[in-house]
Amino acid sequence: MPNAESRPEILYDHQLESTLASVDASEEIAKTLASQLGFDEEQTYHIGYAVREAVVNAVVHGNLYNANKRVRLLVERAAPWLQVTVEDEGMGFEEGRQADPLAVENLLSQSGRGILIIRAFMDEVSIGRTAGGGTRIVMRKSLPPPA
Questions:
Q1: Could you read off the pLDDT of 101-124 as tens digits, one per residue?
Q2: Buried (b) or exposed (e) across 24-61, using 16+ Cβ within 10 A?
Q3: pTM of the predicted model as reported, rounded to 2 decimal places
Q4: Which residues contact 111 (CB under 8 A, 6 or more apart)?
Q5: Residue 5 to residue 59: CA distance in whole angstroms
Q6: Residue-range definition of the domain harbouring residue 110
Q7: What are the pLDDT digits (tens) for 31-50?
Q8: DSSP state for residue 144 in the 8-state scheme
């Protein structure tokens, strides 16, 4: 069992509405927390953008803008990482069934690059299901060394 020092510190844990306003808010929350943890401007932007993409997917594709469904945004810190979890209440997501966004026939598509962007901007990414059947994406970024 982990000791108290190894338990993640919860920096933010809220249920957000399935709206585009929640997308904007989640990006700002992530950027603010990343900056407070000492990430540089570029890393802070990357973390915020990855969170934005994850919440867009949760709102648009997971919850289908359903006002009765929520998106959970959980931000935690534990050495040596910052971890962000986004969960929706949709029908689940299977990454392997998605079209390759880099395939020639998909290059001009208006959507389909969110997971690619998240993987490019974060150090570790895992996608699974919640107990209720929705999608859970967990993203990690290594904490910067102390100043």
A1: 444 444 444 555 578 889 999 999
A2: ebbbebbbebbbebebeeebbbbbbbbbbbbbbbbbbb
A3: 0.85
A4: none
A5: 34
A6: 10-142
A7: 999 999 999 999 999 999 99
A8: P
Can you tell me the distance from the alpha carbon of 8 to that of 94, in angstroms, rounded to the nearest whole number? 28
- Least Cα distance to 73 among 122, 6, 131, 139 occurs for 139
Structurally, how many domains does the chain consist of? 1
d(CA 68, CA 124): 31
- Tell me, what DSSP letter sits at residue 137? E
For the chain, the distance separating the N- and C-terminal CA atoms, rounded to the nearest angstrom, is 31
Assess if residue 120 is contained within a domain.
yes
Q: What is the CATH number for 87? A: 3.30.565.10
